[in-house]
Structures are given as C-alpha cells and as structure tokens.
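Many introductory courses stop at the sequence. We go one step further.
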Amino acid sequence: MKKNPADKKFSDNMGAGQYTLEGFLGTDQRQIAEIINEDQAKLDQLGVRAEDLAILLRRLSRAGMTGLGEAVEYRGYEISVDEWRGWLGCPFKDAKRAAKRLSSCRHLASGRELKWSDLSIHLIADHGFFQGRGAAHRIEPEELYNFLLPLIEAEAKED
C-alpha cells in the first residue's frame, strides 16, 4: 500500500511520547489507514458501527463517574473510573480533547473485563480508530462488541 502523506503527519503524532507516553500504535507496523480499514471491515462483518460502540462506552464511563472512584454497578456491569487533572488532545489534530480518565469495567455475568480512556472513546467514535496492535489502550473491535453485546441486547429489548 502506498503511503498517504496525511498518514505520515498523523503517524508522527501517534508515536510514543508525542501525545501519550505509550503512543497509539503499539507494535503495529500497519499504516493508520490500513488499521482503520481492517477494523471497519470487522465492524461491517459484525453489523455494528464504531459510533454506536463508543456511545455505550461513554454511557458506562458516565455511570462509573457517579462512584467518585469507587466501583458502581450499572446494567450488569461493574465500573470504576479514575481521573487525573488535565486533558489529552486528539492525535488527529481535530481540535478536540478528552479528560484524562480511565474506565475499568467488568461484565458481572461473564467476568470479562475491559479498560478504556476517554480519548479512546473519541478516537473510536470520531475516527474509527481502535489504536494499533500492542497499544496500551487497543481494544479489538470484535472483543469490544462481544463485551458490550449484553448491553446492546438489553437496550434493543427496551425499544
């Protein structure tokens, strides 16, 4: 795949030490567009939109924030949120920023656990970017879908 000049600009922002200590690419050698396209293909296969998954992550994080650092239960999930002062800018340079917040969540019935940052929610929702393989906050799209499936199904019953 030929390198896109925009990919070069963004890949410089994605490296370790640019926006975050670990960066957003991990050990992944793929170009950013390739990462996004492969993740989108998986989402298409699952029949779900990245934006919809991000909405559910945001909803879980907001529920967790009510616990003020302590775990709370929300619709079959136990979630706690740790927060630090300050903001993180988007490496795609879209002038958006996210609070320095990390959500830790466990699905009570299955025992599955996931962690994500507020910036990860933005990257998924607005850029379809789940981060590179080996990145500290990479969530595989299928893993995220399966983790959120009980919540998706519960909300579908309510509609």
